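Hi R.,

Here's the chain you asked about this morning:
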Amino acid sequence: MSHTNFTIDTDADGIALVTWDMPGRSMNVFTEEVMRELDAIVDEVAGDPGIKGAVITSGKDSFSGGADLAMLQKMLGTFAAEKAADPMLATKTLFETAGYMTSLFRKLETSGKPWVSAINGTCMGGAFELSLACHGRVAADGDKVKLALPEVKVGIFPGAGGTQRVPRLTDTQNALQMLTSGQTLTPRKAKSMGLVHEVVAPENLVESAKAMILNGLKPVAPWDEKGFKLPGGPVYSAAGANLWPPAIAILRRETWGNYPAAHAILKCVYEGLLVPFDTGLKIEQRYFTEILQTREAEAMIRSLFVSLQELNKGARRPAGVPETNFSKIGIVGAGFMGAGIAYVTAKAGIPVVLVDRDLESAARGKAHSERLTSEAVKKGRSTEEEKEKLLSLITPSADYFDMEGSDLVIEAVFEESGVKKTATEKAEAVLKPSAVFASNTSTIPITSLARNSARPANFIGLHFFSPVDRMMLVEIILGKKTGDKAIAVAMDFVRAIRKTPVVVNDTRGFYVNRCVLRYMSEAYKMLIAGVPAPMIENAAKAAGMPVGPLALTDETAIDLAQKIMKQTIRDLGANAVDPAQMQLIDTMVEDHGRFGRKNGKGFYDYPQKPAKKKLWPTLRELYPQLSPEQVDYEELKQRFLAVIALEAVRVMEEGIVTDPREADVGSILAFGFAPYTGGVLSYIDGIGAKKFLKIARGLQKRWGPEFKPPKLLVDMAEKDQTFYQRFDPYAQAKQAA
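And the predicted structure, written out as tokens:
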């Protein structure tokens, strides 16, 4: 029997090599067709007396990325449509559909023939669950081999046996850590946990897998054998009593109760370990069906998987512009941002010239890359050869002429218009006519900076976030005269350095910083009003933000906040900045010398490691303090999310961002806007425009004009619209179809 996605070759020893190699795809994923074919292959192997067992591997560099979540999204769309007609039948159908992969893997596991998974690269999600259902698992040794069950990161959980097999193969504590965090394992870590049997050289992978079968591998899972004992001990035991109460508390501390899928994992494992394996699978299936219906799962799958992939593939790239293969990048400014951009550029294999006012300053910028690469080598994530290769691609210089021949020059000097004007003029003097010039400004409008350029069509903004090596988003900002060529080159560069691009039209603060500054500003208002700083930080984190607004100010630097405020006053007048907030920041910087993390003193104190940062005690003396009983904690949480979301609505209303995918993905990647919501606009869509409008008006009455609902929100509430209806990113494709 021939298959589209698999080939089967049976050797002289009677071992079938099942090679998964989907045509037209760079990575194997589970689709309906793939599962039907695998189902038939299991029958074929089990029913052929000439086959002793089977090895399943991949014909690609990676094993598999797991289930195609676009297929899952389609399934949820069908469920939503059927639910309107018959809710009970729709839920039953969803339950049965969601359990197909579970039953397929169980069928393989109990087929009577031994199966071995030969893992040759990335093995994620459903693919790792398939491997766990095999009787043997062999992984190739190497950095490119990564194993994980990361579903919790997109609002769901391993629902094809993962919550039942992992805690039956390794101790319960490690299982819970892996499942609730989506932790990625190296082959050797997986072996130490008992999730992989052997780790071998890549060239010996299939041979070693076949050897397991030839050496008498039992076609029976451990939990199907009489006398099986859980590696971590029974739930009702001394070990269980020491594990479960703190596990629940730790999860609460880490998630603040915002992620239903993470809590469902605990329930699946706890309840599943109390019953026989097949009953445990049914428990998992029930919880999985429940989680699939949550708002969090729908929003996270859309934003953190579907939309993210589309943006990474260049969904907003102008059509018809040839792709740029970069031979040289110039960077002006070797400070923290410029040095970070140089590092990620060289890491992508692109030569870069790093220019500063003198060679010593430029060399300090290159030293940033040396520190990062040395740390990677120390942690085993890189080699000395890779380190030297990366560093060889960075040329520090004090001469602008060394950037001659660059395809793109990125200016990353101080956030001051005059300094940026000088850098632009000097760089353009040596650029080839086709080259693009980009400014890494964080707040100054690109159109105003482009006035310093002799060719504004090739002038664009590239707004990176700190630290550049870890932050995955880049805002591409368009000036009024920016042309398609500049947009395409900027997008090609962002994709080349493996970051996610979002396209933003010009305005002060662009998109991300307008939202972030609202977040910080709301915290300053709370602090000035006497809300205790710990309550401010904890309320933000309880709302779903990964970093409190005061800690975030420290990370970006308090003196930078001061510079931004002063620049805003210079450009827009004194009324553009709240004088009480200006006084707070001036007090921190000028009276107390507290610049943030960079000088170890900000809203937090930063002692020497291993001691942890702690809020600066003197903060409570700056303003009269309210008692905790006087503060509505739930309202603090609501204020943080609402003030950001309302600014995002204004951005959409003004046409600064035009695609809701970019608004949502950008808000999560740039400043961690409560990922469980799916992003700023999905947050409003999830609540409903009418209900959110009412919330905003109530907050406006109590806390001021920043909560005033934009006309766009009022209009959407009247029409009962969502952002993905009003600004449908797929409208053109639908019309073409």
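The chain has a mean pLDDT of 94.

Let me know if you need anything else.
M.
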